Amino acid sequence: MKSFRSIFLLVLLVPFIEIYLLLKVGGIIGAFPTIFLVVFTAALGAGLLRQQGFATFQRLQANLAQGIVPAYEMIEGPIILVGGILLLTPGFITDILGFACLIPQLRRKIAQYVIENHLVQGEGHFQWGKPKERDVLEGEFRKED
């Protein structure tokens, strides 16, 4: 319930902060330069999204062709998608977060964190979650009649 409340506050506060910043920047540099800046970051973001998305998809295909599990690429894909959505959303905070998602080194660190802390390697596959502790009692036994 607490996470729902946090997400609700985030969804409610971000647009107000974005509108406030747009009005402040518009008051300083003018309306048309502000609109141009918002449209420019959206166009630049769309181009970067396309470039980064294709590069990640090509790495994914290359790893699959070599028989390597493309774990990083499978985590980076959604990060790139979120970054693109944030860049297409008008506003300066969302643009900063969107550009951060499209920085390959930062994206790799996020993917590494997710893989190390939230994915568990099972028998030839990955599972979401923490490792399950199994009740194993090692020892020897002998059957007596």
Automatic annotation (TrEMBL):
Keywords: Membrane, Transmembrane, Transmembrane helix. The keyword Membrane applies. One of its GO terms (cellular component) is membrane. Pfam families: FxsA (PF04186). InterPro entries: FxsA (IPR007313). The chain crosses the membrane at residues 6-23, 30-49, 79-103. PANTHER family: UPF0716 PROTEIN FXSA. NCBIfam families: PRK11463.1-2. This is FxsA cytoplasmic membrane protein. The lineage of its organism: Bacteria, Pseudomonadati, Pseudomonadota, Gammaproteobacteria, Methylococcales.
